[in-house]
Amino acid sequence: MMDDKIQELFPNGTLKKEKQPNALNIPINNQYYVIDEKELTNREKWLLNMNNEWYHYLLGQGSMVHKGKKRQIIQFTTTYTTEELLWMETLESFFEGVIDIYKENNYGLVVCSAYNEGLEVEELLLALDEDFGTQTRVYIGEYLEVDDNFKNQFLEEHQLFTSSKRRVSSFMTEYIQFALRNSNQNSPFITKLKHYIKNTKDMESMVNTLWLHKGNISASANALYIHRNTLLYKLDKIKEESGINLKDFDHLILCYYIL
Predict the structure, then answer these.
(1) pLDDT in tens, 170-226
(2) Judgement on whether residues 83 and 114 belong to the same structural domain of the protein
(3) How confident is the model at residue 1 (pLDDT cuts 50, 70, 90)?
(4) CB atoms within 10 A of CB 64
(5) In whole angstroms, how far apart are CA 240 and each of 116, 127, 206, 236?
(6) Quick one: pLDDT at residue 56?
(7) How many CA atoms lie within 13 A of 97 on its CB side?
(8) What are phi and psi of 110, to 5 degrees?
């Protein structure tokens, strides 16, 4: 079994009931096989991460991890490179709050504890592909609380990523076209987004007003009878809480579409 092989190859590890700091914690039989990071090369860390908890949770049958914490899953595909480890380290440097990275064959995941936008990623990917001779696509996932719906939301995002042709894509850029093609009315993310809009004070009126005024902040503030800075403050608060940026037209059109 894989678990036995890991213990055979890394005999200095120990079984613990809880995760340990400054160590690689590999889930084995409801415990953690703990290996001191100082004893591992970067290559060994990367190979062992193929057995990590996020892989088992999102792509297998593993249990939920980091329940109650907010996490962002960034997906990527790329072509072959002889400098795979250096390529992975370079990609990881593009994002804030990286807590895990996994790759198998041409597909992989980056798990982040902070919210990353896709604004600068496309330019960075161009440089990455030029340096390594690769062709890479990235999906910038939503920043969501890990709960009972998290895996279903990830699988939905995975489907969107698979159907996208963009170099950099996200839920907001892909969902409407996907929904029109597939008549999808059972999206777990859309259900959560609708609930958030309906239960956030003034958000529905802000969405409708911004749409009516084509995203113009000053005109929308006048129509809502509030100061421009007040509207900007409310929009920034919504973005901080949910990752929804109503100043971005892709986000605005999706919110308007589902009302």
Answers:
(1) 988 888 777 766 655 578 888 888 899 999 999 999 999 999 999 999 999 999 999
(2) yes
(3) very low
(4) 13
(5) 12, 29, 16, 6
(6) 79
(7) 14
(8) -120, 125
Q: How far apart are CA 53 and CA 160, in angstroms?
A: 23
201-223 in b/e burial notation, b at 16+ Cβ within 10 A?
eebeebbbbbbebebebeebbeb
| Number of compact structural domains in the chain | 3
63, 148: one domain:
yes
Strands 98-104 and 107-112: antiparallel
Q: What is the pLDDT of residue 184?
A: 55
Contact between 154 and 73 (Cβ < 8 Å): yes
Task: Out of 30, 48, 66, pick the residue that ends a domain.
Answer: 48
Using one digit for the tens of pLDDT, what is the confidence trace for 13-71? Answer: 899 888 788 887 776 777 788 898 888 877 677 667 655 678 778 988 788 888 999 99
Q: Do 61 and 33 share a structural domain? A: no
Last residue of a domain, one of 180, 211, 231: 180
CATH number at residue 100: 3.30.70
> What pLDDT shows up at residue 100?
85
* Distance from C-alpha of 259 to C-alpha of 244, rounded to nearest angstrom: 15
Do 167 and 61 share a structural domain? Answer: yes
Judge if 113 and 212 occupy the same domain. Answer: no
Q: Which carries the bigger pLDDT value, residue 174 or residue 129?
A: 129
Domain with 206, as residue range(s), is 188-258
Angular region, 109: left φ>0, alpha ψ -120 to 50, beta rest: beta
